[in-house]
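User: Sequence recovery, please. Input:
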């Protein structure tokens, strides 16, 4: 997410409001930067306020039109519910977005770090300087969010004229991944001590690759358990239940199909969606 004409317009409208509140912006701006949201604190939260107002007006107006067309108590209740839920939902979404993106970026960096460290180690063995290593890394799309972190380091060195050590220190400050911070901090220690980077990179690659292998094994075990649970709960159990209910219907003179409809169109879709959320939460990301 980047600054736009709309977000700048929102900031101009609510600038005086934020000046009166006198909120410290340093921590807020750092969170936005770590989440790769290229908007300052006042601009982002001004946009949230404007979106909440627009959401309230549009939801209230649309439900009011429906109430005019169909005037009854249910539509009146809908006006209150929808005009309350929509702005609250918009506010919660945008307020939680920076933290969610920060965590997502940190996880992505942690996942790709073993392979990026191996790439850096290979280039270091060839005698390439850290600045050139990150410049090359910034052009490789295979390493996910690490490429963006490398781009920030390269931009500060090439465009802003900052030395490599300062650029690496800034990378530590704005990185959402603790592992990447530790990796860069180790690089700084080696560079400042005058030692060679090769042995340090070798140790990092061995450590990260071993940890990655262990994570994959744990993930496969979790995935196997989840697959067995999926087969039992949403495939085998419903089939057995249908057979049992059918037999009971034949012996008892008929059964109500209400439960069958609830099972088919309510319980099973919710179960499928629950397993989907479990997969999205990270159980299958290494597979």
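Assistant: Recovered sequence (287 residues):
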């Amino acid at each position: 997410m980047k600054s736009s004409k709309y977000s700048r317009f929102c900031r101009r409208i609510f600038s005086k409001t934020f000046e009166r509140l006198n909120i410290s912006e340093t921590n807020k701006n750092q969170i936005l930067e770590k989440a790769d949201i290229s908007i300052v604190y006042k601009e982002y939260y001004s946009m949230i306020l404007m979106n909440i107002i627009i959401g309230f007006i549009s939801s209230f107006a649309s439900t009011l039109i429906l109430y005019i067309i169909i005037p009854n108590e249910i539509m009146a209740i809908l006006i209150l519910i929808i005009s309350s839920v929509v702005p609250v939902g918009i506010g919660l979404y945008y307020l939680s977005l920076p933290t969610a993106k920060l965590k997502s970026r940190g996880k992505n960096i942690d996942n790709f770090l073993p392979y990026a460290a191996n790439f850096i180690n290979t280039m270091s063995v060839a005698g390439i300087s850290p600045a050139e290593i990150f410049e090359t890394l910034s052009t490789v799309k295979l390493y996910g969010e690490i490429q963006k972190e490398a781009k920030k380091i390269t931009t500060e060195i090439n465009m802003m004229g900052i030395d490599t050590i300062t650029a690496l220190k800034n990378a530590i400050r704005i990185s959402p991944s603790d592992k990447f911070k530790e990796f860069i901090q180790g690089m700084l220690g080696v560079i400042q001590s005058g030692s060679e980077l090769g042995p340090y990179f070798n140790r990092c690659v061995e450590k990260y690759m071993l940890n990655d292998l262990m994570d994959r094994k744990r993930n496969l075990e979790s995935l196997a358990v989840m697959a067995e649970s999926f087969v039992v709960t949403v495939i085998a159990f419903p089939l057995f239940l249908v057979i049992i209910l059918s037999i009971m219907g034949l012996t008892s003179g008929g059964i109500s199909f209400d439960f069958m409809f609830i099972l088919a169109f309510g319980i099973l879709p919710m179960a499928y969606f629950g397993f989907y959320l479990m997969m999205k939460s990270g159980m299958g990301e290494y597979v």
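The radius of gyration is 27 Å.
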